[in-house]
């Protein structure tokens, strides 16, 4: 049986073929052992500090907010090695992989950010990486495919299904069910079967812990709200984890509304509220009335996923966290604003969180401190944004 | 309550086969592949040529336990507009024509949840289904499905993987009914890599823990494999991808499809004679 609780209320669980249960149990045990092993913790902390560049800065925006009652801070995960928060937990899981005596890593990637993070960690730690990527995404994200290959990873295009992220996850799980004796599946977000949602949260929780220390030093009090974008939900759970027991801090997750939550083209699973099982967990998913999984859509590939991490489902259900959806257009406007006003080019994913935070700032009628998790930088999105915005700057 | 292990069409089938010194041959196909009418004809061909039981899929968008052959069967059926209610219509017709053959469903959990667990099991029973196996529900998540199965006179099939611990096998012994799906190897479905015939040690353990009769599946595509599996102590063999491959290769010619399916089933069945 599981040693840790595999569920968050009714959400989560281990809905995978029986064959994978021993591999998940082995991973849970390795995670628990590593937690109590000072040598493991030291190596992880050293890598985060000296290789990845932690702690990341927290920047008070100078020009973005016109409401004098509001202070808007940006937690700068965009400055982390690899260009996004993803490097944190990838380093942790890669160390777990070595600890289990496994030599190969399987990963899925959508836009390629998790693939790049996996490739760099595997290059550093001498692991062999196989990265599954939807065939459509391989075409759309050729610079990231090249980055992964430069660092020695094998990129495997997935043609099955819709040829996007969910199909890459399917293929990675299929691979793992044949190769678990030598391979670790390095899942890229706080979703999937237990113990992944818990491991990914714990290996990202320094985002919130650093934020707490930084805001206490600068403001002498906790923020009124922390805001993060939610696709699978890894950067958001990393920001939320340390504040869950602080009721004065609002936890706000922002999902991609794409072309609108009333169209079929969005990825706002919590906001639209349909429960089911995908990729090993019971959570909110996008599905038709028969339970067939529907494709999600977002301008930002990192949020384009038809499920969400089960702890977010639980935080929503209990009312501890609030979830909203922001459209492509709103996110692009926030993206442009941050470039122009602060000289920071953000990824399109956290541009969703920023868009919501800016609305909160406009509406604020009393003093408010908001922290937005700026989970990644925008280099990877430039080609895409040029196509959309053209000369419209 | 009578143990579900000891009732129903599977029990009768195993008793009859055992009297004849035969194992079971169970082909798997996807319901609605490639379309409603052809699928129904395919099922008739399988039964007429000696299938002892049928294992049938409901097409699903994200089949994580399936290799390319069965994934494509799902895509073909979904492409023909086949939805779960069409599958139940096919099953009802099949049951009307063949009263005695055991019929099992092999599918994914979200299709069950979308309809409501109890409602799904009730509909399955009303359509003449004997057993349900959910590919992405391991033992530790199975209780609510087992409860629904018992409430609706369905037998919940459990999977015994080659890497199963004694703890797992003992639980399967406690909870299994109908038959036990013995995985012939790790990985996903497909004829590309062959079944590994279970070691005598595993078969002995299955007996020790009194699991429902083991049918071996994953990587079964030849009569030799069927006969070695049965000699090793399996109660029968399930062949999915090899069966579905015949459908996939003959989509343009239904006469050839039925002829080849018929020959395949007859040959595989012949290999079950001890």
From TrEMBL, chain A:
First-tier enzyme category under EC: lyase
EC number(s) on file: 4.2.1.20
Cofactors: pyridoxal 5'-phosphate
Species of provenance: Glaciecola punicea ACAM 611
Modified residues (N6-(pyridoxal phosphate)lysine): 86
Subunit structure, as described in the record: Tetramer of two alpha and two beta chains.
Protein name: Tryptophan synthase beta chain
Biological role stated in the UniProt entry: The beta subunit is responsible for the synthesis of L-tryptophan from indole and L-serine.
Substrates-to-products reaction catalysed: (1S,2R)-1-C-(indol-3-yl)glycerol 3-phosphate + L-serine = D-glyceraldehyde 3-phosphate + L-tryptophan + H2O
Entry GO MF terms: tryptophan synthase activity
Originating gene: trpB
Pathway listed: Amino-acid biosynthesis; L-tryptophan biosynthesis; L-tryptophan from chorismate: step 5/5
Keywords, sorted A to Z: Amino-acid biosynthesis, Aromatic amino acid biosynthesis, Lyase, Pyridoxal phosphate, Tryptophan biosynthesis
TrEMBL record, chain B:
Cross-referenced Pfam families: Trp_syntA (PF00290)
Positions of the catalytic residues: 55 (proton acceptor), 66 (proton acceptor)
Catalytic activity: (1S,2R)-1-C-(indol-3-yl)glycerol 3-phosphate + L-serine = D-glyceraldehyde 3-phosphate + L-tryptophan + H2O
Stretches of the chain forming a coiled coil according to its record: none
Pathway annotation: Amino-acid biosynthesis; L-tryptophan biosynthesis; L-tryptophan from chorismate: step 5/5
Record's keyword terms, sorted: Amino-acid biosynthesis, Aromatic amino acid biosynthesis, Lyase, Tryptophan biosynthesis
GO MF term set: tryptophan synthase activity
Domain of life, source organism: Bacteria
The protein's Enzyme Commission number: 4.2.1.20
Gene Ontology CC terms: cytosol
Described purpose of this protein according to its UniProt entry: The alpha subunit is responsible for the aldol cleavage of indoleglycerol phosphate to indole and glyceraldehyde 3-phosphate.
Membership in a protein family: Belongs to the TrpA family.
PANTHER family: TRYPTOPHAN SYNTHASE ALPHA CHAIN, CHLOROPLASTIC (PTHR43406:SF1), TRYPTOPHAN SYNTHASE, ALPHA CHAIN (PTHR43406)
Assembly description: Tetramer of two alpha and two beta chains.
UniProt name for this protein: Tryptophan synthase alpha chain
Organism of origin: Glaciecola punicea ACAM 611
Lineage of the organism: Bacteria, Pseudomonadati, Pseudomonadota, Gammaproteobacteria, Alteromonadales
């Amino acid at each position: 049986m599981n040693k840790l609780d595999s569920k968050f209320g009714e959400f989560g669980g281990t809905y995978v073929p029986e064959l994978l249960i021993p591999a998940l149990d082995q991973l849970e045990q390795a995670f628990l052992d590593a937690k109590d092993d000072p040598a493991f913790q030291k190596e992880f902390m050293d890598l985060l500090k000296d290789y990845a560049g932690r702690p990341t800065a927290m920047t008070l925006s100078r020009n973005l907010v016109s409401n004098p009652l509001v202070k808007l801070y940006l937690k700068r995960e965009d400055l982390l090695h690899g260009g996004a928060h993803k490097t944190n937990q990838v380093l942790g899981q890669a160390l777990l992989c070595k600890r289990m005596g496994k030599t190969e890593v399987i990963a899925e990637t959508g836009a390629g950010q998790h693939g790049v993070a996996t490739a760099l960690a595997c290059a550093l730690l001498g692991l062999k990486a196989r990265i599954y990527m939807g065939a459509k995404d391989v075409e759309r994200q050729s610079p990231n495919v090249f980055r992964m290959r430069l660092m020695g990873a094998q990129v495997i295009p997935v043609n099955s299904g819709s040829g996007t992220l969910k199909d890459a996850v399917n293929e990675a799980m299929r691979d793992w069910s044949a190769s678990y004796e030598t391979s670790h599946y390095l899942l890229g977000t706080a979703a999937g079967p237990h113990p992944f949602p818990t491991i990914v949260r714990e290996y990202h929780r320094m985002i919130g812990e650093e934020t707490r220390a930084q805001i206490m030093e600068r403001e002498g009090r906790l923020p009124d709200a922390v805001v993060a974008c939610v696709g699978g939900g890894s950067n958001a759970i990393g920001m939320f984890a340390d504040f869950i027991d602080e009721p004065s801090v609002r936890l706000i997750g922002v999902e991609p509304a794409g072309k609108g939550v009333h169209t079929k083209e969005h990825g706002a699973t919590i906001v639209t509220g349909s429960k089911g099982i995908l990729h090993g967990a019971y959570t909110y998913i996008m599905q038709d009335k028969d339970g067939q999984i529907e494709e999600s859509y977002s301008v930002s590939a990192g949020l384009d996923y038809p499920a969400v991490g089960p702890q977010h489902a639980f935080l929503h259900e209990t009312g501890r966290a609030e979830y909203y959806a922001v459209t492509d257009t709103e996110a692009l406007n926030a993206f442009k604003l941050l470039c122009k006003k602060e000289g920071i080019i953000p990824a399109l994913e956290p541009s969703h969180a920023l868009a919501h935070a800016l609305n909160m700032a406009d509406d604020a009628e009393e003093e408010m401190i908001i922290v937005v998790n700026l989970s990644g930088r925008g280099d990877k999105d430039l080609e895409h944004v040029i196509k959309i915005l053209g000369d419209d700057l | 309550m009578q143990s579900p292990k000891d009732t129903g069409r599977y029990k009768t089938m195993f008793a009859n086969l055992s009297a004849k010194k035969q194992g079971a041959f169970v082909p798997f196909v996807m319901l609605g592949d490639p379309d409603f009418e052809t699928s129904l004809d395919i099922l008739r061909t399988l039964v007429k040529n000696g299938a002892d039981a049928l294992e049938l899929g409901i097409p699903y968008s994200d089949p994580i336990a399936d290799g390319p052959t069965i994934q494509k069967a799902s895509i073909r059926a979904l492409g023909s507009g086949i939805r779960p209610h069409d599958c139940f219509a096919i099953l009802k017709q099949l049951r009307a024509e063949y009263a005695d053959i055991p019929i099992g469903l092999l599918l994914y959990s979200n299709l069950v949840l979308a309809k409501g667990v109890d409602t799904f099991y009730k509909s399955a029973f009303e359509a003449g289904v004997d057993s349900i196996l959910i590919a992405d529900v391991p033992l530790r998540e199975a209780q609510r499905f087992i409860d629904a199965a018992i409430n609706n006179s369905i037998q919940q099939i459990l999977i015994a993987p080659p890497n199963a611990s004694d703890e797992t096998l003992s639980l399967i012994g406690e909870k299994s009914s109908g038959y036990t799906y013995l995985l012939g190897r790790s990985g996903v479905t497909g004829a590309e890599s062959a079944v590994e015939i279970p070691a005598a040690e595993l078969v002995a353990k299955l007996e020790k823990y009194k699991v429902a009769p083991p049918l071996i599946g994953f990587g079964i595509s030849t009569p030799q494999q069927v006969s070695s599996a049965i000699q090793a102590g399996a109660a029968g063999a399930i062949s999915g991808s090899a069966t579905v491959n015949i459908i996939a290769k003959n989509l343009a010619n239904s006469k050839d499809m039925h002829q080849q399916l018929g020959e395949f089933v007859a040959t595989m069945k012949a290999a079950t004679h001890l």
